[in-house]
Specification:
Structural class: mainly beta
Number of strands: 15
CATH superfamily of the largest domain: Hotdog Thioesterase
Distance between the termini: 44 Å
Strand content: 25-35%
Helix content: 10-25%
CATH architecture of the largest domain: Roll
Radius of gyration: 24 Å
CATH class of the largest domain: Alpha Beta
Number of domains: 2
Largest sheet: 7 strands, antiparallel
Shape: globular
Order of helices and strands: HEHEHEEEEEHEEEEEEEE
Length: 330
């Protein structure tokens, strides 16, 4: 359903308005948070441990995030005077969202982010950040619905030095309705509607393997660590050298979600997306076949198969085994 009013003229004045001014991060850069991040990401890079540890660069935004339920907690009194610069959180963001919600653009989805790292962050660094509404796009028509792209820009400083920038973009939109009369079967998607993967120099050999009906896993030739998805370097030892191992094709469902929204021409919600733990120990996100979306269970045994989605393209998916091993693990 497309809203009748284009309110871009009301949104444009928000560009350049501050969201946060000289706000201190809730905690200094610290080793426990670095450890938790690395454990969650499965990143064993030795640069993030020990006396000379640095923080993973992609943690930049994590240091500036507020807690759930204590968004306005004051900075600890132990901070340095420089870190206790008078801070301001403005109502700009809430006002912008209220205007969009009131006009019918009530849904939101994150679309992308860009970060720039100017120097490594180390334990003890106390961070100050400023955030502004950078741009509000003209109204756009997307597959999700009609709406506006909003970009915020953050600058992060330590001891007065700019250490990184973070640009975050969302779409505030009015969802497109895809209702069909009761009893009418879902339309069969045409092959051209199926999204294509982005193939680059780092993952091209993986897709060459798929074309040959092989599921290839990267293996570091320096330390032997297996990794998936494909990356240009080893997260354990940092070596850029690698070879491949062909997966045997067996695995279990480690986790899963059931997708209900948004509708997309190539898919017919609801459907399940699974995180499969392969016998080799790495995990892969994929579709699951041979079982309805509400029949998927954690611990379910699955096996690799390849399905053709158009005349030129096949994809690796996983089929639920019919051997009765579908109970949820304890």
């Amino acid at each position: 359903m497309r809203p009748a009013a284009d309110i871009h003229h009301l949104l444009k004045p928000f560009e350049g308005r501050p969201v946060a001014v000289s706000v201190a991060a809730a905690d200094p850069v610290n080793l426990p948070m670095i450890r938790h991040w690395c454990e969650a990401m499965g990143d064993a890079n030795p640069a993030y441990t020990g006396d000379d540890a640095i923080a993973p660069p992609t943690m930049l935004q994590a240091w500036t995030m507020t807690g759930l339920g204590f968004p306005d907690s004051p900075a600890p009194a132990t901070r340095t005077p420089a870190a206790r610069t008078p801070a301001t959180r403005t109502p700009t963001h809430d006002q912008l969202f209220a205007l969009l919600d009131g006009a019918g653009y009530s849904a939101v989805v994150a679309t992308d982010c860009e970060q720039e790292y100017l120097r490594p962050l180390r334990p003890g660094d106390e961070l100050i950040f400023d955030t502004v509404i950078e741009t509000v796009s003209p109204r756009k028509d997307t597959k999700l619905g009609t709406g506006y792209f909003i970009t915020t820009a953050m600058q992060v400083r330590a001891a007065g030095e700019l250490v990184g920038t973070h640009r975050f973009r969302i779409l505030k939109y009015a969802p497109t309705k895809h209702a069909r009369p009761e009893g009418t079967p879902a339309a069969v998607p045409t092959p051209s509607t199926r999204p294509r993967p982005v193939i680059n120099r780092d993952n091209a050999p993986f897709w060459e393997g798929v074309a040959a009906h092989k599921l290839l896993i990267q293996r570091c030739t320096a330390c032997g660590t297996l990794r998936f998805p494909w990356l240009p370097g080893c997260g354990r030892c940092g070596s850029p050298e690698w070879g491949t191992v062909e997966a045997c094709g067996s695995g279990t469902v480690h986790s899963y979600v059931v997708v209900h929204h948004p509708p997309f021409p190539a898919f017919d919600p609801p459907y399940a997306v699974v995180l499969v733990e392969l016998t080799e120990g790495v995990r892969i996100i994929s579709s699951i076949t041979g079982v309805p979306h509400d029949g998927v269970r954690i611990g379910m045994s699955v096996e690799l198969e390849f399905i053709r989605v158009d005349a030129e393209w096949e994809l690796p998916v996983f089929r639920a085994r019919s051997d009765g091993s579908g109970e949820e693990s304890g």
